[in-house]
């Protein structure tokens, strides 16, 4: 099969990349199908990360491709400011069928980053609509990731994402992360210790005053920082405290949404319902960029029904509810329903967990975490070279035909939900060999 090849590598400034290293040592992907990527030379690369946590249904799905093609021939673009087009409304209704009961209102964005900033703005607008304009403070969590917009980056808590860009938004504070508890090392599924860390919200309430806090935003499972699974009871305590103090709870479900942990959304399996939920990635199987924010009906009513008239929320994007993205979303959700991708994830989860923890005794493996079809394998860093060991493992795996993801010295895995036992064997076999090769 003929695939495109670049004529040079100069013009493209690559995101989140060591541009100098890559352009001297390029590793290129040219096409994708099923569980695999392929290089321009035809080498197969097993996808252990669903792209970037997003191709939950695998690659090259015909139903999604045909839906995009069909929609492009009917309506390529239409604005959604004071106008509408049918497929955006249909996509919103399909999403509302999957969200927790009482979260039936959906606002479209184009990415997880935009969803995070949108959710924070909705939270501020909600309190203002209810006459509580003093609630302007936003609470995130250490090691949290909520995209790269100024709002999401401000409540996010990964230092490397923040330190280049100055003070960011004012009136932001952070809860402690839930990682590093010795008793939780090598936990299978949810760890036992650490629910009390949610009580740090009481300290922030005492410090700032509940009447100043608008929202708390957390990932149900912190993904990009290296797979931090919440301790048992942690999210329940956080929910109870938010309710007690009139604070909105926002779940960033960009990673945990659309079957990743065996249910439509993380809130369902984890048994905690937020007030606002962000999503993206798996929404369209990454075929067309799209994000969304679902809100509790009462949040929507307070803003929309409480407005005096005219525009109720001064927010939106040129491409909100884009016709091609909406078509991709509908086709993706139909695939999830027909093939029961969340159910498939739950069915293979025990095998996935066993394979993940089989790496426990390899050199330099200091912790392993898993939940659903997510895994984090933490390696001891090399002295004076943080992140170097894991990056070398990443490169070895790619060259051996397997794609993994690394963040610092943590290997993160999140395969397409169509993964089969043979793929798990190959993924972990290759990864194990790469970890052994980087033992020194």
Automatic annotation (TrEMBL):
Protein name: Aspartate aminotransferase family protein
UniProt keyword annotations, A-Z: Aminotransferase, Pyridoxal phosphate, Transferase
Top-level lineage group: Bacteria
InterPro entries given in the database record: Aminotrans_3 (IPR005814), Aminotrans_3_PPA_site (IPR049704), PyrdxlP-dep_Trfase (IPR015424), PyrdxlP-dep_Trfase_major (IPR015421), PyrdxlP-dep_Trfase_small (IPR015422)
Keyword Nuclease attached: no
Species this chain originates from: Paeniroseomonas aquatica
One Pfam family recorded for the sequence: Aminotran_3
GO function terms (MF aspect): transaminase activity
Keyword field contains Transferase: yes
Known cofactor(s): pyridoxal 5'-phosphate
Family assignment from sequence similarity: Belongs to the class-III pyridoxal-phosphate-dependent aminotransferase family.
């Amino acid at each position: 099969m003929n695939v495109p090849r670049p004529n040079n590598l100069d013009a493209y400034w690559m995101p989140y990349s060591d541009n100098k290293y890559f352009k001297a040592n390029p590793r290129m992907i040219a096409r994708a199908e099923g569980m695999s990527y392929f290089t321009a030379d035809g080498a197969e690369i097993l996808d252990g990360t669903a792209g970037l946590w997003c191709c939950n249904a695998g690659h090259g799905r015909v139903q999604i491709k045909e839906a995009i093609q069909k929609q492009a021939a009917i309506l390529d673009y239409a604005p959604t400011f004071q106008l509408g087009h049918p497929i955006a409304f249909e996509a919103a209704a399909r999403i509302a069928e999957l969200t927790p009961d009482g979260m039936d209102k959906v606002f479209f964005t184009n990415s997880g980053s935009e969803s995070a900033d949108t959710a924070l703005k909705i939270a501020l607008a909600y309190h203002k609509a209810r006459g509580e304009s003093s609630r302007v403070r936003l609470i995130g969590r250490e090691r949290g990731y909520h995209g790269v917009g100024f709002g999401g980056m401000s409540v996010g808590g990964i230092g490397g994402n923040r330190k280049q860009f100055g003070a960011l938004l004012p009136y932001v504070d952070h809860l402690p992360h839930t990682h590093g508890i010795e008793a939780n090392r090598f936990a299978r599924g949810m760890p036992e210790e650490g629910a009390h860390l949610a009580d740090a919200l009481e300290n922030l309430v005492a410090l700032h005053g509940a009447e100043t806090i608008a929202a708390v935003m957390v990932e149900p499972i912190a993904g990009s920082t290296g797979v931090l699974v919440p301790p048992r009871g942690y999210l329940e305590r956080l929910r109870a405290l938010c309710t007690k103090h009139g604070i909105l709870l926002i779940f960033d479900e960009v990673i945990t949404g659309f079957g990743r942990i065996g249910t439509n959304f993380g809130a369902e399996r984890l048994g905690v319902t937020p007030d606002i939920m962000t999503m993206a990635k798996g929404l369209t199987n990454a075929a067309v960029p799209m994000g969304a924010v679902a809100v509790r009906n009462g949040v929507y009513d307070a803003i929309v029904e409480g407005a005096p008239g005219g525009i109720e929320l001064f927010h939106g994007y040129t491409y909100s509810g884009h016709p091609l993205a909406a078509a991709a979303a509908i086709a993706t959700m139909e695939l999830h329903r027909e093939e029961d991708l969340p159910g498939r994830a739950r069915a293979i989860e025990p095998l996935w967990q066993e394979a993940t923890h089989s790496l426990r005794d390899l050199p330099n493996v200091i912790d392993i975490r898993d939940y659903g079809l997510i895994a984090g394998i933490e390696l001891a860093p090399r002295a004076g070279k943080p992140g170097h060991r894991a990056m070398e493992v990443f490169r070895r795996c790619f060259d051996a035909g397997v794609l993994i993801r690394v963040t610092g010295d943590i290997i993160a895995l999140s395969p397409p939900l169509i993964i089969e036992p043979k793929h798990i064997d190959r993924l972990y076999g290759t990864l194990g060999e790469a970890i052994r090769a980087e033992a020194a």
